[in-house]
Hints:
- The chain contains three helices and seven strands, in the order βαββαβαβββ.
- By secondary structure, it is an alpha+beta fold.
- Strands 2-3-1-4-5 form a five-stranded antiparallel beta sheet, covered by helices on one side. A two-stranded parallel sheet has the order 6-7.
- It is globular.
- The N and C termini lie far apart (30 Å).
- The structure holds zinc ion (ZN).
- Residues 12, 14, 58, 85 line the site of zinc ion (ZN).
- Zinc ion is lined by residues 12, 14, 58, 85.
Amino acid sequence: MLRPFSDITGYHAHIYYDPLRTKPHAELLREAIAAQFEAVVGRWHDVPVGPHVTAMYQVAFEIPEFPRIVPWLMLNHGPLSILIHPHSGNGKMDHLLHGLWLGKPLRIYYDRLSGELPRIEGWVPYTAERV
Length: 131
Ligand code: ZN
């Protein structure tokens, strides 16, 4: 069953970094995002929180900003992994099935997300990690 675009209410970009190695690039992105885009930049999390296995901060943005900020992140993510996912009402599906990655995909602690993962023939949630 196909879902309509109208299920999407907004997006997150989770910008992952290594506090000891790649934080300067994360800082560069953070400042540029705040200056150039209609987006809400979240707090630094040098210690992993929630479903995330490494340090990150999140950027929240609305649907109209997607075609501006996502291509810009494609050009500028450098050494960082970034998960861009929609909000469609199911945390597990949004992070593990509907998201797209820039850079290397990382594991996600799926037990810490709301919702259920559907069984989809031929699809394995390869980023799913147990806590
Ligand atoms: Zn998120």
